[in-house]
């Protein structure tokens, strides 16, 4: 069987992590099938059954990328004569009469909590994702044979907004890293808070800054650590930049996780903190409710009302909210990429 993996767009961040995780799964577990990865740059190694084709001229031009998806891509891929095309970049190649599977891990077009504006410079790139690229993604869902999503809320949203059958959408929860090798023995401190964040608007760092202003009127000896650049540090908030994964796990153990982000597909920090067993103060959004379902240490707040977050933080500091003993949750212990791999290499008759 020959499979073409389309991920020309991936080069950094979460998209690159997804690509490398899937590539490693193929490399370690499948030597029988032939794989061809279409990439924008040479970032993976070839093996006996994995071939890499780089198309930098398409990656570096949004117009050429759209042209590839809608016009030129079908001719290029047909020449490779694959049995299945698997897209890791949320969109399909249109006009193919070959089974296509999409791994849909971009939630911006499907969330309803925030409408981004083309007229605000800080929101323009997100508006492009929400409205323009979102249109291509939704059209891709209708054109492909199978869509794999990470959560039930995404499955419901995709079904409703794209008007496709639930049978076409397969939910496979992403695997949360095994934390057993890391130090989780640090004593919990109810005056320490932690948010592994990024500067993106929807990560909602401002909610923490505003909550801190409210809280500082009553308390002075609390500490909030954020993983955004150091120049954002202010008062009780320490911004430390990116941390090694082991230090992130240690922070979960000794701190309360704050998760004010209002746009996520899954929300890994919440799932990781749940494994550690710490208190989580999370935005009241569908993804948070799903990841933290039945979790004893979960508390929710309106992400656009920092006073609600401040109140929860105050309850942690005063001991009104205490860290509870938790029941281990290993519902997604299976390797999700192995499950996806098995779906892709199913016989054509199953598409």
Shape: elongated
Helix content estimate: 25-40%
First CA to last CA: what distance? 14 Å
User: What class, by secondary structure content?
Assistant: alpha/beta
Number of helices: 11
Poorly predicted residue ranges? none
SSE succession: EHEEHHEEHEHEEHEEHEHEHEHH
Question: Mind telling me the CATH class of the largest domain?
Answer: Alpha Beta
CATH architecture of the largest domain: 3-Layer(aba) Sandwich
Can you put this structure into words, describing what you see?
There is one protein chain. The chain is of the alpha/beta class and about 350 residues long. The chain has 2 domains: about 1-175 and about 335-350, Rossmann fold (3-Layer(aba) Sandwich), CATH 3.40.50; about 190-320, Glycogen Phosphorylase B (Rossmann fold, 3-Layer(aba) Sandwich), CATH 3.40.50.2000. Helices cover about 35% and strands about 15% of the residues. It has 11 helices and 13 strands. The longest helix has 20 residues, at about 125-145. The two termini are about 15 Å apart. The model has no long low-confidence stretch (mean pLDDT about 95).
């Amino acid at each position: 069987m020959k499979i073409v993996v389309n991920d020309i767009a991936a080069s950094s961040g979460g998209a690159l992590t997804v690509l490398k995780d899937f590539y490693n799964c193929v490399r370690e577990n499948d030597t029988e099938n032939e794989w061809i990865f279409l990439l924008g740059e040479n970032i993976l190694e070839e093996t006996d059954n994995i071939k890499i084709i780089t198309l930098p001229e398409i990656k570096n031009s949004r117009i050429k990328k759209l042209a590839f998806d809608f016009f030129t891509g079908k001719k290029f891929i047909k020449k490779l004569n694959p049995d299945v095309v698997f897209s890791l970049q949320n969109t399909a190649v249109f006009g193919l009469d070959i089974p296509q599977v999409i791994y849909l891990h971009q939630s911006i077009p499907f969330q309803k909590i925030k409408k981004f504006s083309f007229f605000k410079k800080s929101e323009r790139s997100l508006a492009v994702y929400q409205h323009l690229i979102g249109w291509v993604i939704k059209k891709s869902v209708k054109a492909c044979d199978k869509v794999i999503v990470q959560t039930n809320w995404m499955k419901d949203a995709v079904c409703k907004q794209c008007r496709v059958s639930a049978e076409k959408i397969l939910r496979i929860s992403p695997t949360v890293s095994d934390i057993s090798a890391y130090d989780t023995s640090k004593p919990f401190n109810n005056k320490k808070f932690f948010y592994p964040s990024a500067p993106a608007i929807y990560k909602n760092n401002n909610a923490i800054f505003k909550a801190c202003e409210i809280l500082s009127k009553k308390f002075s000896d609390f500490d909030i650590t954020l993983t955004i650049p150091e120049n954002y540090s202010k008062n009780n908030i320490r911004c430390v930049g990116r941390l090694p994964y082991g230090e992130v796990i240690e922070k979960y153990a000794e701190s309360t996780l704050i998760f004010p982000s209002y746009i996520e597909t899954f929300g890994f920090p919440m799932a990781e903190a749940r494994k550690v067993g710490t208190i989580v103060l999370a935005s009241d959004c569908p993804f948070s409710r799903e990841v933290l379902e039945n979790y004893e240490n979960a508390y929710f707040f309106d992400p656009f009302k920092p006073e609600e977050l401040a109140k929860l933080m105050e309850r942690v500091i005063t001991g009104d909210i205490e860290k509870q003993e938790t029941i281990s949750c290993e519902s997604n212990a299976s390797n999700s990429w192995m499950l996806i791999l098995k779906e892709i290499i199913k016989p054509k008759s199953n598409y």
